[in-house]
Hints:
By secondary structure, this protein is of the alpha+beta class. The chain has a single domain (about 5-110), classed as TATA-Binding Protein. Helix content is about 20%, strand content about 35%. It is built from two helices and five strands, in the order H-E-E-E-E-H-E. The chain has helices at about 5-20, 80-90, and strands at about 30-35, 40-50, 55-65, 70-75, 95-100. The chain has a five-stranded mixed beta sheet, with helices on one face. The mean pLDDT is about 95.
Amino acid sequence: xxxxxxxxxxxxxxxxxxxxxxxxxxxxxxxxxxxxxxxxxxxxxxxxxxxxxxxxxxxxxxxxxxxxxxxxxxxxxxxxxxxxxxxxxxxxxxxxxxxxxxxxxxxxxxxxxx
Length: 114
C-alpha cells in the first residue's frame, strides 16, 4: 500500500507528463520540460523557447508535495481545474492546498488550508 506522499507524487508527475505532451501550435520553437525533485518535493512544468525574436521561459504548473502528502498548488497558469485531475488520480480534496491563494481566503476554497 502506497502512502499519501507516494500517491501525491505519482499523481502530480502523471499530470505534468500529460500536459507536457501538448505542444502549442502558436509556439513551434518551444519545448516543454517536466522538472521533478522527489527528494525536496518540487514539481514543475516549464515551457522554454522562442516567441519570434524573444526568448520565453514560462512556468505552466508548480506543485509542492509536502512530507505529510499534501499537494500545494503554487502555480496553475492554465484554465484547467487541476484539482479535479488530482482527485481523479487519488489525491483527497482535504490534501490539496491552493498555495497561490492568500491564507485568509483558503478556508473558503473547499480545500485544505495548509
